[in-house]
Structure formats: C-alpha cells, structure tokens
Design a protein that fits this description.
Number of strands: 9
Radius of gyration: 22 Å
Oligomer: single chain
Distance between the termini: 36 Å
Strand order of the largest sheet: 5-8-9-7-6
Order of helices and strands: EHHEEEEHEEEEH
Number of domains: 2
Helix content: 25-40%
Strand content: 25-35%
C-alpha cells in the first residue's frame, strides 16, 4: 500500500529578515536626536536661518532613514488560493498583491543580491522587472502574464515556488486552473 500524496497547504507564508538594517535605523535615530538637540538647546551663533536649516535637515534625514530601514527590515509573503501578497516592514507598507490568475510561472532563484537590484528595498530594474530585496540569498521569481517579473527574497523560497506551481497546474483544456 502506497502513502497517499499529501495535498499542498491552503496557505503558505514565508519571511525574510535583515538584521543589518537595524544599524542604519540607529543612524536615523542619531540624526533625528541631533536635530531635536539643535532645536531645543543650541549655542548656534550664526543666525536663525542656518539653525533652522540644520534642524530641518537632521530631522528629515533621520525620518527618511528610519522609514527606509524599518520598512525593509523584513518581508512577509502570503500565498493563498487566489493571490500572492508581499508586505514589508512592521506596518505592512509597502504592500504588493498579485492575483495568481495573472501569474504564468514561478522560479526559484538561489542567489538574489541587493547589488543586482541597486540596493535594498522595493526596486525596479528595466531588464529584471520589480523586486522586494531585504537581504542577500534565496528568492522567488514570478513571471506575470504581461511578461514582467516580480522577485522577492524570502526564506524557503523553493516551497513557495512549489505551492504556486501547484496552483497554476494546467487544466485538461490547457489553461491554467482558475483562468
């Protein structure tokens, strides 16, 4: 007697984290603290305009660094019966939702690097398509019906690819299921 083939899970979730981004967050906090310190207790003698510019510059740089790093310190991927969803950071923003009906293929990428995408974060590259890159390592690459691609770095990407491929199995008529 053979073991029955276990059906794939209805929902698959994957995550990836980049702990190095916390160092950049600390730099953002330092810039923000410097801007607040300058605004509250400054012995600035060059006038109010340069002081205001320094305060605004430090606070703005600190907030941008904090958002840019905390938004991409980790990514969560959720695949269910109908869609593929990527949420970034602790607030889940930015978020990308792709209906599986728009996906024509899924591939495992054993080595995705921030360098090939121009850095960490939500990226667009004319030849490669779009990506969410939070760390170097394995990733999942979707091919969409319009020819574009979407890449995301995520732990256990091979399992995600298997789930998507199972959802995209061809029906007897030759069309992807659900189309």
């Amino acid at each position: 007697m053979t073991d029955p083939i276990e059906p794939p899970p209805r929902v698959w979730t994957g995550r990836a984290t980049n702990r190095a981004q916390w160092l950049l967050s600390a730099a953002g906090v330092a810039c923000l603290a410097l801007g607040i310190e300058l605004a509250v207790d400054s012995a600035w003698t060059s006038g109010n305009v340069p002081l205001a510019m320094a305060v605004v510059g430090c606070v703005a740089a600190g907030l941008l660094m904090l958002y840019g790093t905390l938004a991409f310190v980790h990514v969560a991927v959720h695949i269910d019966e109908d869609c593929f969803e990527v949420r970034c950071g602790y607030m889940g923003v930015p978020r990308r939702r792709i209906l599986l009906a728009h996906v024509v293929g899924a591939e495992f990428a054993p080595r995705v690097t921030p360098r090939q995408w121009g850095g960490w974060g939500y990226r667009w590259h004319p030849e490669n398509g779009m990506a969410v890159v939070v760390r170097r390592g394995e990733g999942l690459v979707l091919t969409l019906g319009d020819g574009r691609s979407f890449t995301v770095t995520v732990d256990d990407a091979e399992a995600g690819v298997r789930i998507i491929r199972d959802r995209l199995r061809l029906s007897p008529g030759g069309r992807p299921s659900g189309a």
